[in-house]
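PT: before anyone asks, these are the final sequences, not the draft ones from last week. 652 residues across everything. Please model them as a single complex and drop the result in this thread when it's through.
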Amino acid sequence: MAPKQTLIVDCDTGIDDALALLYLLGDPGVEIGAVTTVFGNTDAETAALNTLRVLELAGRADIPVSVGARSNWCGDAHLAPHVHGSDGLGDTDLPAPATAPSAEPAAELIVRLARQNPGAVRLLAIGPLTNLATALLLEPDLPELVEHVTIMGGAVRHPGNATPAAEANIHNDPEAARIVLRAGWPVTLVPLDATMGELITEQHQRRLAERGSPTTRFTSSVLEQYFDFYERDIFGERRAACHDPLAAAIAVGDVAPVLAPVVSTDVDTGDGPGRGATVADVRGQYRGFPEQQEANVRVVLETDRTFPDLLVDRLCGAPEPTRRVA
Amino acid sequence: MAPKQTLIVDCDTGIDDALALLYLLGDPGVEIGAVTTVFGNTDAETAALNTLRVLELAGRADIPVSVGARSNWCGDAHLAPHVHGSDGLGDTDLPAPATAPSAEPAAELIVRLARQNPGAVRLLAIGPLTNLATALLLEPDLPELVEHVTIMGGAVRHPGNATPAAEANIHNDPEAARIVLRAGWPVTLVPLDATMGELITEQHQRRLAERGSPTTRFTSSVLEQYFDFYERDIFGERRAACHDPLAAAIAVGDVAPVLAPVVSTDVDTGDGPGRGATVADVRGQYRGFPEQQEANVRVVLETDRTFPDLLVDRLCGAPEPTRRVA
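LR: through. Structure below.
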């Protein structure tokens, strides 16, 4: 058996964050060392409580949860109750947590775990990047201590979702995103280009409901709110993008991107209509993306669009194909 | 017969500008009232001389040519000899012009013709938008005097070509582009999303060479330089995008776009990596682009990719299908 990977998941739980956590908890080869939370889908405290609710549902209240940034460094925080419900988790009947978050701030926890396990920690960031940028300020050597960073965020050839140009996680803290992308560590970015192609449907929801476990009853239920948003604002149909779970699956090597060039990538931190846009140099798209000297980010532009089946198989406890790729 | 359309062509001639002019000159239903030039593919004076060379080749030295902006208002001008050759026109043996540009500055000429023909002039802008923005400053009522503006420029879901985010015409003067897009007149934007799908090939070049007229000998010859650039920097093959001719064909109604939503469109005028990006709100792409209150630009995202055949038919003097659409 391959050695366990230690992941720190930085998230803003959030419906799809919850799906990502449940997906990861179902993999015996992955060890979640801690979950840190940040404003985004909901406020950072609620995100921590939601994370605890999900961990307790999965019987994993042993995993430490730490609260992080309440806003970006400009003091702004764009929350998304219209997407994730007023409690950030679809307003289901999931009980309040019995456990409490750690007293250690998120960025300090990230730095501590990285120092304790030099070279052995992977970061999965599925919310705004304020905690990771703060951790980089606290420990400038963090890039040498961390093995890999996977980020759900950005939009390259796909339109944004927070604004015409910008995806919500990056738009919520463009300055932090620029710091994280430029830090010199190996980064995989999973933007809307990939996640908007991986769609969970009502058929998946029915499978989850029929399975009837506490986890699948919750995920089936929470998808109602998510489908409501996607039907109303995005697709005109009841299906939803697997943003955060896809990034999780890529982080642990369950999904091999179909197209993921390593390219020079920056973030627009100006005040104009492009604020928060991820500017990735994909001009080489007609020539197989020739190597770039300044390339700093692996950008996942396409996956094979079968991930929702894998996600639902995992949540239903079905036997899975052997498909780990990294 | 439909009444003649009066077009003012604002250009930076340029290989594909030359193709656009020759395409338009082959249409008996289109009257080019004047050609104004701007820096871009080459400097504004050379663009005027190149325009005269092309007009004389086609026996149309009667059309007035006027020189416009030498740089944008920041004093910058990014020319493109690596694309268009050191003379801006593929370094062929086309003779120097016998005629000379008008003494009237481009922006003044645009304003004068619009005042003389209120509501009857169409603008086709296939270079940086400095002349149009200057004309708007000279005559704030210009939007009421002009019937329509068609612009080759921008990149929406397609990467830029001047930078990862920005297309060259818009990148060369983002401030002017913002002024022109916001002026409140009907604007059709033909960005790289459309033009990079309309590819002229070596087969087309052979047809032009075999036709053997002065015009087709020149166009076949000038394509050598264009193919050199596209093979080396873009496609790895000898084919080239019909940027400016496609915009010309759309301006006169020869090509009906397959997908052209009217959407809110702005330009990034900041100093960051997105400078010159056209930020068009195409987030409604999954729902048939629902109507937007602030929509200001018709953005051509797709055409049917058969335009190069029409272009070469026209240049070869072949009978054309009846396909005018507007």
